[in-house]
Design a protein that fits this description.
It contains 7 helices and no strands. The chain has helices spanning 3-19, 27-34, 38-49, 53-71, 76-82, 88-99, 103-108. Helix 1 packs across helix 2 (27-34), helix 2 packs across helix 3 and helix 5 (76-82) crosses helix 6. The longest helix has 19 residues, at 53-71. The radius of gyration is 16 Å and the shape is elongated.
């Protein structure tokens, strides 16, 4: 399989992830979009993007959340829920771990 074909398959997967961030995304679903077996997809996704699919999805959701915190006035609970977190505590832990600031600190002074 050519590099261009791999890139096209992964571009299709990344576009799907971006279009469906509000939904539950599974490796099974994403591997079907890429037309790979689940195990091959998981290995290739990590090799191509440097992180597993689940981590990539989490980072995309946190990026969207950081935009919402910086440029919108939605309550933090709403930002957490719309980005796939069960509540503000799990969102705050993940946000602080990846971004280095709590969501409320980021909203006041984004770094």
């Amino acid at each position: 399989m050519s590099k261009a074909s791999y890139r096209a398959r992964f571009r299709k997967v990344l576009d799907h992830i971006d279009a469906h961030l509000n939904e539950s995304l599974t490796v099974e679903e994403l591997s079907a979009i890429a037309a790979f077996s689940k195990h091959h997809f998981h290995r290739q996704f990590s090799a191509v993007l440097g992180v597993p699919a689940g981590k990539y999805i989490q980072l995309r959701r946190l990026k969207r959340a950081s935009y919402q915190l910086a440029f919108r006035s939605d309550p933090i609970l709403e930002v957490a829920l719309t980005n796939g977190y069960e509540g503000p505590e799990s969102f705050a832990r993940a946000f602080k771990k990846e971004i280095g600031q709590s969501p409320s600190d980021f909203r006041r002074t984004p770094q």
